[in-house]
Amino acid sequence: MVLTKDVSLPSEEELTVQEVEVSTPGLRAAAFHMGKACENANNEFMLCRQEYKDPRQCLNEGKAVTACSLDFFRKIKKNCAMEFTQFANCLDRSSSDFSFSPCRKTQAVFDKCMLDNLNMERPYFGYFSEVKVHHTERPRPEGIKKPEYPDTPVPVPDDLPLSPAKFGKRVFS
Asked: Membrane-spanning regions, if any (predicted)?
C-alpha cells in the first residue's frame, strides 16, 4: 500500500493496547485451549481483514482478540497456574523445538485442570482444520461482489451416455 497525504493513519491512542506478555512455551502450552476459547473473536478479526484488505479498518476486532487472550490467561493464572507452569517448563526444557511428545504427562494434568476448573475440553485432533462458517453481526462492506469466471466450462449433463473405460476401471478391490 502506497502512503500519500490522503491516507489517514490511526493515532497512537487507537493503537495502544495491553500486550499479552507470555513466552513462547507458554503460548504453545495454552494454544489449543486459547484457540477454542477465543475462536469467535479470531474468526471475526480474520473475516474483517479478508473483507476490507486494510488492517486499519479492523482495529476494534484486533483489540477484541487481545482482550480475549488476556482474559483467557487471567483465568489460567487464577485456576491452573501450577499445572500450566509445569507444562510450559516441560515444553521449554525437554526439546529444542518445543515438541509436545516428551510432555504428554504434564499436558494431561493441565488438560484435566482446564476441564475440571474452567470446563474447557482440549479440542480433538483436526478441529482447527475443519471448515466452519462464521456468522457476524458486522455489516458487509460495500463493493464486495462474487467473482465471475467467464471461461467456466459448460457442465456435463447427468444423462449423457458414458462409454466404457478404454483400459478398464481404476477400482482395486
From this structure: none
